[in-house]
Amino acid sequence: SSGLEEPTMNVTIEQGSTGDRSYTATWTLIPVTYIDADGNQQTCTDFTIIESSESDVNLGTSGQDEWYVVSGNVTINGQLFLSGFNSHLILCDGATLNINHTNNADGLFSNNLIIYGQSVGNGTLTASAPWNGIHSNNGLTINGGIISATSTTTDGINAGSGNLTINRGND
Is residue 99 within 8 Å of residue 108, measured between CB atoms? Predict the structure, then answer.
């Protein structure tokens, strides 16, 4: 036992102390804001944080609306496959998502991808692959961020059977 009766933010374990002790830490995700298609700030509270990887990353549940957040500098040396029905990707201000895929496939693949930025709008997505840098099977909507996609053999961006929509873009 730790000897603590109430939840405590800070615990000091004295030097030289012995014996078994257990502590439980509980974290709460901080909501993430984003700018929607109409330029209004919204809040997302249920999301998956995308992290760096040296291989392919497969996230989401087929048929579900899924939310993903990129904060900080993230590099994926493989394919990023977002398997939700609608995949919402929030690029936090100052964040970078670099996808470098070298196999014969798309860099970022999704069923229907919607990309958002935050208030400053300088979150960056860069995707390169032999096939499409970004391939969204049923349409791609860009509501914010700085997007760059390249391919060595086909299109940098492929919106599949849907539309490519860019809201509030800059020249």
Answer: yes
